[in-house]
Request: fold
Amino acid sequence: MDRTVIAYVIYLLVSIALTVWVARTLSRNGRIFLSDVLRGNEKLADAVNHLLVVGFYLVNLGFVALYLSDDGTIDDTRGIFEALSTKVGVVLLVLGIMHLGNVYVLNRIRRRGAMEREQVPPVAPQDWVGA
Reply:
């Protein structure tokens, strides 16, 4: 078997396994965060969580597929490791950037919701507060 094909197979196995592991971890632990962001609406948190996971899979697996091609052939075992380290490293960076982007956006939504809750007065302006 050609060494380039071996590198492709290993790259796909490692990249897909990493994508699945990260997606499951984010889904499991992100649900609690989403529930807080969405003010305890569990059904909506589950739906948003599922949509985020589907989008995560689509973007990452699409990137893995697009990044599969290589310009040169791999001549030796060292070349396999060099190609794999570059490709898997880039996939890991993309996974990390996507994760940080998701957390940033959700945190902004959570902060905005907290600020809106603080702006509501505890009683209507025409009512009296008991002493």
